[in-house]
């Protein structure tokens, strides 16, 4: 929201009061509060009839500083509030003649004690941002409504990322962003997942601790500032430090919650009924059996909206006309090795058998006069479940428990964005704050009941909407995209932005939701989709099984589904890292290569985990231009070497694309290519790529519970490679990619392979190998 008219003037009818003269600094053991008048004070009479703005600095955990700006603090506070996690923190506060400093870990805030506002935030001795003259401001609009803003410095060459799943340009500089969840598809500035957190390539993050609408002007109102503002008398934000962008995300997700670890089975291929198609059990079996007959590994089958009868969403009852024996059907599908997902939303249509029950018991959101809030958008006469009412949460969860008992393994928690603001909640929550926050309560209620019924690390959603903290309830998908190459690219931008907002796991509708893709787009999107953290074939008006596109599509789905299953030892270890450190599995290049300036703006390629570069192809012709950081990289699919530090132009048919492995990588590849959940350590092949002189490569193989089973390191000195394994005593092998000859292998044997020399330890429990290269 803009408050100024250009750089010099204030918009007509607006009044801005800025801290101008520091009058006092008060400290205690944990905080420092700065009192500032909004004009220069020359004598005691100047202290009358003016505002005194307050800035309080504290630290909830090391390397995080909380800033709370206040005008009047006596206003009644209505929730909801983001859940903020804290850790024991040693805070060092010093108040000198020229500067006052609060230090937490390597992060500090320094407040100048001169006659103007001068606040700097430092990581060690490096200033990362600051708030200067006319930065903070208490503002009233022409109607007298109050706002509070902050303006933080934006340096030359500094880029801003994140702010949720945004489909606009990846670098947010120059954009106006409103944190306000909307059902806007993937082709507009609206977003399903608005997160008031941004990450800077300068090595810090900023989280605005307000669940209501936060308005950002990112190098837009003032080209050297990031401005954020909220309505009201106060503003709270956190400066989050770290040695690099990864540490910043780790600290941010310590503050707002770590992503849960999804079950291993969720990483396989999902197939859905699609949205408005006609289907019954025979249709479902036709597709499931058709996949099996064509040797297309399938892990999850999803029933979209019309598993319930039309006009009755949600009543959580199977449409008896189409599914007369739902329990039997689900058991028959599960006997084929499938997990089951069912679509739900938080709305109760008036025709649903649950509407009267919800109305009579106060389980639905109300209007000011006590009526149930209703409208006809989406479902006729629908109401909204009031998740601020514990009884309503238990009621909603009880309906889901019946489905889980029938055989449903997870839920697609659709919607959660169309939340009204002219309503009254059971607990008195502020409806403006609840607009964005509603999805947190919705997804948490569903995730909690899955965890309760199925166990820890067995709960998974397929969620569309989110707010800060929503990363704790994976998985999320990108919403309604179109069947075009442009929409495929905007989906990737949205996923990379969400990943830089603390979300570890993300998916998208392969080949697009709206309309039906041409066969070439389908195949290119299949490649991208099966090299994403989660992979789902879903659409609107048509089925998405590959043989309806062309026979080559069948081959492409088979090849890349099997590739993903075989990569699960690497992918699930990356998933565990995501749950521990808050890092996305699909990583923008800037996250892995923050010192490479070319990587700062890249949004058409990404890293899958820390060592695989993926460059999807966004055209019918099969041409691709992508950037490769320094080093000798290896195409995982073709074994070709690509020299880095440059842009590369290539042509690919539908069997390949750029999937490059970073040098000095030990990549764990599994023995199974038909399912994602298996014993990853058993018969694992450890592929060693371009190990340089004096370098070391390391990999960890986990089990499907996320526990470490096998740790392997490889080091090279001159022409000798030493490999050490610790952990599980199970058969394993080593593949020296691109190396086809060795003079000697101690404690093992060698065999020439197409990709390189295959080394097999002499015994299955062997812990060390030594290879002398030719």
On the 0 to 100 scale, the average pLDDT is 97
Question: What's the story with the biggest beta sheet?
Answer: 8 strands, antiparallel
Number of helix segments? Answer: 11
The total beta strand count reads 49
Strand order of the largest sheet: 4-5-6-7-21-18-17-15
Low-confidence stretches: none
Task: Provide an overview of this structure.
This is Alpha-glucosidase. This protein is α+β, with helices and mostly antiparallel strands and about 775 residues long. The protein is built from 11 helices and 49 strands. The strands form 11 sheets. An 8-stranded antiparallel β-sheet has the order 4-5-6-7-21-18-17-15. A 6-stranded antiparallel β-sheet has the order 3-13-14-20-19-16, with no helix packed on it. Strand 28, helix 7 and strand 29 (about 505) form a beta-alpha-beta unit. Helix 5 (about 390-405) runs parallel beside helix 6 (about 430-455) and helix 8 (about 520-530) runs parallel beside helix 9 (about 550-565).
């Amino acid at each position: 929201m803009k408050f100024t008219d250009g750089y010099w003037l204030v918009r007509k009818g607006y009044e801005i009061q800025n801290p101008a003269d520091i009058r006092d600094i008060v400290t205690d053991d944990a905080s420092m509060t700065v009192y500032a008048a909004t004009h220069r004070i020359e004598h005691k009479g100047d202290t009358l009839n003016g505002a005194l703005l307050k800035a309080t600095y504290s630290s909830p955990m090391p390397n995080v500083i909380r800033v709370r700006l206040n005008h009047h603090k006596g206003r009644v506070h209505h929730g909801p509030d983001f859940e903020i996690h804290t850790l024991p923190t040693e805070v060092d506060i010093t108040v000198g003649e020229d500067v006052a400093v609060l230090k937490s870990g390597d992060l500090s805030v320094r407040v100048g004690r001169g006659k103007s506002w001068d606040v700097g935030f430092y990581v060690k001795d490096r200033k990362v941002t600051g708030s200067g003259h006319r930065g903070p401001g208490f503002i009233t609009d022409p109607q007298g409504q109050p706002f509070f803003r902050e303006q933080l410095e934006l340096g030359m060459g500094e880029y801003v990322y994140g702010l949720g799943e945004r489909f606009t340009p990846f670098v947010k500089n120059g954009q106006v962003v409103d944190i306000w969840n909307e059902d806007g598809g993937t082709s507009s500035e609206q977003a399903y997942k608005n997160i008031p957190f941004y990450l800077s390539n300068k090595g810090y993050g900023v989280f605005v601790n307000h669940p209501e609408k936060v308005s950002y002007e990112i190098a837009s109102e003032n080209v050297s500032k990031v401005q954020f503002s909220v309505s009201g008398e106060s503003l709270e934000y956190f400066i989050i430090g770290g040695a690099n962008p990864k540490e910043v995300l780790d600290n941010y997700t310590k503050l707002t919650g770590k992503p849960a670890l999804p079950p291993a089975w969720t990483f396989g291929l999902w197939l859905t009924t699609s949205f408005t198609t006609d289907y019954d059990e025979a249709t479902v079996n036709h597709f499931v059996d058709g996949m099996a007959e064509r040797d297309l590994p399938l892990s999850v089958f999803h029933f979209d909206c019309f598993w319930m009868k039309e006009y009755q969403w949600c009543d959580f009852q199977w449409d008896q006309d189409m599914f007369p024996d739902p329990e039997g059907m689900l058991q028959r599908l599960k006997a084929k090795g499938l997990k089951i997902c069912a679509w739900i939303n938080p709305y109760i249509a008036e025709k649903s058998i649950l509407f009267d029950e919800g109305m009579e018991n106060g389980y639905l959101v109300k209007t000011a006069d006590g009526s149930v809030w209703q409208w006809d958008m989406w479902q006729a006469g629908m109401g909204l479940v009031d998740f601020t009412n514990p009884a309503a949460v238990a009621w909603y969860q009880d309906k889901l428990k019946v489905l889980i008992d029938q055989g449903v393994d997870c839920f697609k928690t659709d919607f959660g964005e169309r939340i009204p603001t002219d309503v009254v909640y059971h607990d008195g929550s502020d409806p403006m704050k609840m607009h964005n926050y509603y999805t947190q309560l919705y997804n948490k209620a569903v995730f909690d009941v899955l965890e309760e019924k199925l166990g820890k690390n067995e709960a998974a959603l397929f969620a569309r909407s989110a707010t800060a903290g929503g990363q704790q309830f994976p998985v999320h998908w990108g919403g309604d995209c179109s069947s075009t190459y442009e929409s495929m690219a905007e989906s990737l931008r949205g996923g990379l932005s969400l990943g830089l907002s603390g979300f570890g796991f993300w998916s998208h509708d392969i080949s697009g939701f709206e309309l039906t893709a041409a066969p070439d787009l389908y195949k290119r999107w299949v490649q991208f989709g099966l090299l994403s953290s989660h992979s789902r074939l879903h659409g609107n008006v048509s089925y998405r099984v590959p043989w309806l596109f062309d026979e080559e599509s069948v081959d492409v789905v088979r090849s890349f589904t099997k590739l993903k299953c075989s990569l699960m030892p690497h992918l699930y270890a990356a998933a565990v890292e995501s749950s521990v450190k808050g890092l996305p599995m699909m990583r923008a290049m800037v996250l892995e290569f923050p010192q490479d300036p070319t990587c700062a703006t890249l949004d058409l390629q990404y890293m899958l985990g820390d060592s695989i570069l993926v460059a999807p192809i966004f055209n019918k012709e099969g041409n691709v231009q992508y950037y490769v950081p320094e080093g000798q990289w290896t195409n995982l699919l073709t074994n070709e070497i690509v020299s880095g530090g440059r842009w590369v132009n290539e042509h690919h048919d539908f069997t390949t694309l750029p999937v490059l492995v970073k040098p000095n990588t030990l990549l764990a590849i599994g023995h199974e290519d038909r399912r994602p959940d298996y014993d990853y350590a058993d018969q694992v092949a450890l592929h060693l790529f371009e190990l340089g002189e004096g370098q070391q490569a390391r990999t960890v193989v986990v089990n499907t519970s996320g526990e470490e089973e096998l740790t392997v390191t490889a080091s090279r000195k001159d022409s000798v490679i030493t490999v050490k394994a610790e952990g599980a005593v199970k058969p394993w092998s080593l593949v020296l990619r691109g190396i086809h000859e060795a003079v000697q292998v101690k404690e093992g044997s060698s065999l020439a392979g197409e990709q390189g020399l295959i080394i097999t330890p002499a015994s299955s429990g062997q812990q060390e190998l030594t290879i002398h290269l030719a």
